[in-house]
Amino acid sequence: MTTVAAYAAPAAKAPLERTTIERRAVGEFDVLIDIKFAGICHSDIHQARDGWRPGTFPMVPGHEIAGVVSEVGPGVTKYAVGDRVGVGCMVDSCRECDNCKAGLEQYCSGGGPVWTYNGTGKDGQPTYGGYSQKIVVDQDYVVRIPDGLSLDVAAPLLCAGITTYSPLRHWNAGPGKKVAVVGLGGLGHVGVKLAHALGAEVTVLSQSLRKKDDGLKLGADHYYATSDPKTFEELAGTFDLILNTVSAPLDFAPYFSLLRTDGSMVNVGLPEEPVQIVLQTLFGNRRSVSSSGIGGIAETQEMLDFCAEHGVGAEIELISAEEINDAYERVLSSDVRYRFVIDTATI
Length: 347
Hints:
6-stranded parallel sheet; 17 strands; Quinone Oxidoreductase, Chain A, domain 1; alpha/beta; 7-stranded mixed sheet; 24% helix; zinc ion binding; Rossmann fold; 11 helices; 26% strand; 2 domains
């Protein structure tokens, strides 16, 4: 066991505070990672404040982890000391179900994946995330960060990147396809960059035009305000794919009207409140509504390699650990462009 410093929420809705946690000894197939940077995801706030379900406390959030390998177990073949690596939303799964064997570990049906934090490991112990100095992870749930990506801008890709890349790939975003991204926040800004890099024609749908200049610089071809009713009239029947990154309930019907025949609206933001869908609004042109959850380990590596090749990284604001609580409030106020990343040397 190794004692490391971390920032944890001692109870639901309580401010995060500096503490220490125990990391397991490095096992045969484990790697010990010195965490350099950890992104702040909106889901960290949902979970630290019991927004989705009752959490396990004390809770150390963080599943956007970038660092350097400092020790490997005797059976490790994939990584060596000094390698630049990342850890995303999960650190294990059953490895035996059909989904795990298909590289869809995020949809593990053998008890579900072991989440990087606010979860329970196979040893029965709670998992602690990336707001900490070190983490021990099985080599099969670690990914390599290519040299073309700086660790700080790569960290958010371990959640925001794969969360948007996976549905864009699955629904074949690319040349000749029209993609709309709803919301230009932590998820949405990466989604715009990725959809543009994949060759799609990209439109941002945001509440206002306040971030229009940013959206166009990030790769959007068009930018519309959803607060303007004319937007839904002008864009009716336009999109092959709508990627909804907003974690608040929406009135879905107007958005469904923007889909072409056989178009899909895919939701990657997860509101705390139930949402209502009126089926009649989907019937007209064989439209569909779906969702997508992160991606498997192989697809996450594919995403990182793609980002390195195309120069895609998150737009970040680097903060010290003592600024985490203020950062949470700023995320809730949409006062970040576009992802907070913790310099874990400050923990």
